[in-house]
Amino acid sequence: MNCAVITGAASGIGRACALRLAATGAAVALLDIHGAGGTRQEIEDRGGEATEYAVDVTDDDAVREVVAALPAAPTVLVNAAGIIVRKKLLECSVEEWRRVVDVNLTGYFILLRHVIPAMSGAGGGSIVQIASIAGHTGYGFSSYTAAKGGVLALTRQLAAELAGHGIRINSVSPGVVTSGLNRDTLGNPAIRSATVDNIPLGRLGEPDDIARVVAFLAGPEAAFVTGADLVADGGMISTIHWGE
Ligand code: NAD
């Protein structure tokens, strides 16, 4: 049985990944800080198999226990749990900085350090890390940008390290996607329309736009792809606006 572990599975991109991977027949393990009952119910209503775990991805002991309790050895891991603090460097407290780096980067490390041995023991698998266009560009919020840049570097670093375990690892860098993370910001009509104006494809991303890319990287169609980042942003960072 294929078992896919997804963090941040209660909402947005993680939830969409869980629905899509469950539809391919994987038993999905849903991790989120307050559990992921809604996602589990949706999957079960569609005839899929899901277990949920209320776990903070920064809690090493708790993640170890969850991985030990999985119904089957994991063959897919999607690291998606994330938070943002919308502050410039000089506005950001040390506590805020630490929490953003803790969840968005150290939390990925904690999942990797417990899942990789189990995945390797099961003969290998595929890992997809949700990074961001913020890791590629000056996005404005330093703690988030730094953490996402770390995810990109870590993913590249691990490609060679994990190949001998039969594990591929890639990242996806979403652009602006409608989700819990930016519900408030995109709720402002002026910000929303200025953002869309900067996206050549003329719309915001939907969580399933990202989940489809994740499913590709996680699955056999991407058998020769590792250490890569796939930008899914509607063309946003490929474009320079000259104020016309
Ligand atoms: P979201 O807020 O809808 O979902 C994030 C989920 O992570 C939530 O369910 C939340 O409860 C969970 N979470 C937060 N902290 C956690 C912790 N410590 N332990 C366990 N779970 C925790 O946001 P989203 O947009 O779906 O975010 C998913 C990923 O996509 C994040 O890594 C985010 O940085 C990334 N991303 C989002 C966008 C975007 O525009 N929405 C763009 C680029 C990258």
Automatic annotation (TrEMBL):
Kinase: is it a keyword of this entry? no
Kindly give the InterPro entries that the UniProt entry links to this protein.
KR_dom, NAD(P)-bd_dom_sf, Sc_DH/Rdtase_CS, SDR_fam
Span of domain Ketoreductase: 2-175
Q: Where exactly are the transmembrane stretches of this chain?
A: none
Presence of keyword Acetylation: no
A Pfam family that the UniProt record links to this protein:
adh_short_C2
What domain of life does the native source organism fall in? Answer: Bacteria
Q: What name appears for this protein in its UniProt entry? A: 3-alpha-hydroxysteroid dehydrogenase
Source organism: Amycolatopsis bartoniae
Q: Which classification does the entry list for the species?
A: Bacteria, Bacillati, Actinomycetota, Actinomycetes, Pseudonocardiales
